[in-house]
Structure formats: C-alpha cells, structure tokens
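Think of the structure tokens as a kind of shorthand, similar to the way a musician reads notation: each symbol stands for something richer, in this case the local conformation of the backbone. In the example below we present two proteins back to back. Begin with the first one, reading the sequence and then the tokens, and try to describe in your own words what changes along the chain.
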Amino acid sequence: MNGATGITDIHAEVRALRARVRADRRTVSLPLLVFGILTLVDSALLAVIATMPESGGAKLTLLLYWPVAGAAGLIVLRDHARRLAARAGVGGGPRSYEVVTVGFVVSLPVLALLFVPVFFVGGYWATLAWPAAILTAIALRQRGNVVYGVAVALALAGLVQGLLAATPRGSAESWTAIGLQVAAGVALILGGRMADRRARAV
C-alpha cells in the first residue's frame, strides 16, 4: 500500500515538474507572440499611412504607437507572469515583467528622445528599434539567450530597415522597409509558436 502511494506521489511530482517546465518555457514564447502581433499591427498602420497624403496626424499616430503598444504588451506579459506564478510557481523573480514594465514606462521620455530621430529618418518608417529594445530589456532581465538572440536579429533588421527608409516616401525602398517589418513580425510569431509547441511537448 505504501509502495503504491509512493509511486502515486512520484507521478504527481513528475506531473507538477513538467507543468512548471512548460510554464517556464512559455516565458520565451509569449514575448515573441505578443511583440510579433504588435509589429504586424504597426506594419498595417505604416502601409495604410504610406498611401495617404503626409500629415502631422499620421506622424503623431506612428510616434505614439510603440510607446503605447509597448507598454500594453508588457502589461499583458506581466499579468500572465503573475498568473503563472500563482498557478505553477514560475513567472516570479527574474521571470517577472514588473521591473521591465515599470522601467519602460518611467524611461519613455528618454526613449522618445533616443528613438524620435531614428523614427523620422526618411519618412519615419524605421520602427523596429522599439520592439528590439523592449525584447533586449526582457532578455537581460530574464537572462534569456533565446529572446536575446531574437532581439539582436531584430535590431539588425531595424538597421537595414533604417537604410531602406532613408529614401523618399512612397518609393520602392520605403515599401521594402515596410515589407521587412512584416517579415519580422511573422518571424516573431512563428518563433513564438515553435517555442510554445516545444513547451507543450515536455
């Protein structure tokens, strides 16, 4: 009887451990999914505004998008991490998004000063710097090599996008810059989906 009880306890512990590992791995997949979606939404805005006459309202919309969307995305991640911490015992400590979220909101004025010049280069299409910076902060906080690698790749794509964006508005190069952002968003989502599948396979 005790042997059967012991085996049952071991199985329960193994199931709990597997659940914790799956939950921990989702701290990799969710940031990629969230910021992949936000990147695609931004791409759609860029594409729509590219077909419209240039205006201050369009510039203001694009200028405000990533500060607002970035904060919203981090809040989603923070709340998800809190639920994981309560349910599976992971998501707190270094896995928490609390520090990154607060730091992002507090540092928005500084970030705006840093990114606005880049943002308005050649028709204000160079926007991948925002998600690259946010994912870098997440990776450094969580010591996540996968997310950090993605952030570096995104930053490099942002540099290429900036070069393409330094062309007249509506040119083939500026549309290529938007296409590059679409590709980056899709890649983030696919990477997040792959990470999520690996987490579920544990």
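Once you have a description of the first chain, move to the second and do the same.
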Amino acid sequence: MSFTTRTLAVVTLVVQIVQANYRPPPYSDHSRQYQYHQPSYPRHQTPAQRQQQPHRTQHPSTPASQYDPYRHAYTTQPPYRHPTASTYYAQYKNYPHAQTQYVSQPANPICDIPPDLWCDSPQSAQQCGVQRQCDSLRQSRRPLKVTLIYEALCPFCQKFISNQLPAIFNKFQGQFQLELVPWGNARIMRDGSFSCNHGQKECDANRLQSCVLDILSVKLALPFIVCFERDIGRFSVDQALQSCSAFIRNQYRQIKECYDGYRGQELQRLAAQKTLNTKPNPIMEVPYLLINDYTPSIDNNNLNVLMLPQLLAKWTKMYH
C-alpha cells in the first residue's frame, strides 16, 4: 500500500469518528430573542412514559402549531443600554433638594424690601436674591448666641441687666446661648494694671463678676449678677458681695479666692481680648450685644438693646 493510500485511509477514518460523535447544537433563533433546549429524559423511559410528564407552559410568542410540549423556552437577557441624560433627570427630579431652584440674581431688579425682612418668606428671599442664604440659615443647627459686653457701674448696663435681662433669659431659656463679658471700655495700662471708666471700684466689680461667670454657668450666675448690679451703686464691692452671697453660697469661698488672686486678673485679660477682637465694628459704647459673635453698628446695637425680646422671638423661629 502506497503512502498516499494510507494517508487517505487515515483521513477517512477520522471523518467517520467525528461524524459518529457529532450532535447538532440546540435550536437558536436570535431574531426571536430566546432559545429552545431539548429536555433530557432517562434513556430507559418509553415514549408513553414521557407523555405522562407535565407539559411546559407555552411561550407567549410561540405559535400553537409549532408548540412542542417537550421543548422549554429560556428568555435571553436584553442588550445593556447606557442610561441617557433624560433618564438621569427623571431620577434626579424626584429628590426633594431638586425641587428648590436657586437663583444667583434677584428675581426683581429692584429689591425694595428692608434687609430685616429678606428671610421672612421665600418670595422676599427670591426677590432680593438671598434664597440660598435664607434656606441655609433655617436649616442650620447652630444655636443662636447673644453676647452682652458691659461695665459693672455703667448706668445703662445696670438698668438693662436689672430690669430686662432676667425676663428675656427666662422667656427664651433653652432657645439661645447667653454670654456675659464684664469689660466694656476698660483699658490695660503699660504696667499691666486695669483702668476703668468709673474708677477702681468698677475694675474690682468686673473682676468679681468674671470669677462668678468662670465658676458658675450663666443660668446660676445670672441671679447673683442681677442682685449685685442692683446693690453696687450704694454699696462697696465687698458689701454687695456679702449682700448677694445667698446666690453663690456653695461656691462663695472659691469665688473669693479667684477674686483676690491671680485668676481674677487673668479672666479680665480674657474679657479684654474678647472685647477688642470683635468684628467688624469695634465696641464704642455699652451695653453692646453681639449676635453669633457679629458686632453690629452702633445704631443697630441700640435698636437690638431696646427690642431684644421681639428680635429673639423672630430669630429663634428661624433657628428652630
């Protein structure tokens, strides 16, 4: 047998083996987006036993004439499609924050509303172009802070502290933070001593109140300060301290040590630093009210002192 004959015989044998083991692939119709797979049954089952098997549910797109109960349909996954811009917008517009449309420019070219009323309503805020700022103020969880800078012997300070401050603090207690800074227009001299507008007595009274505020909270210190401001005009500092000592009975010794020692002077320097670092307007007169550490102008400060209860009623509604 020649080489060519042997090669042809080997090729013929390989082809026969491949044809014997070949099975056609499952039927696939990509235009209909699903495939049919022939279920496998045990070989020992007869056709009659196979007919007793439960019928599969006919695929809705398969014609009844072509339906084979022994073929099972599996739907293929649809092709992936990238979401379009309209899809993103449809999802985004459902969020609450997407409902608010801020404008960088005033809706009205002329904002004829006083600044105190800009945040009264969304319409006024939009008209003056401060809608974002007003919404940020309402959503802020920062507590409202009111700082009173005063002098112990200032007649206007004494009147404000004795007659107005207790009622204001009790009415709005828990709705704002009150900070008291007894310094006013006092000065630190070159030798480190203090000089006050109403003499050394006022410097001593300021130092004593700084010690009280350092040891006690404002809520506990305020009754003593009110009593002290009412008595300091006709008593000395020590006599006024004794007269109002019932309000600081448990901390009397600690406060007296602070007042007589170096701690009292250190607290006064801190009060001076707090007063001198106010922005944007310097403290020119007392009593002076800082709102969240902001120093208003003198005219606005005088208005704030006179109308503090009404302003707090308005401001606290924005913060709560």
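Compare your description with these statements about the second chain. Confidence is low (pLDDT under 50) at residues 27-37, 69-76, 95-99.
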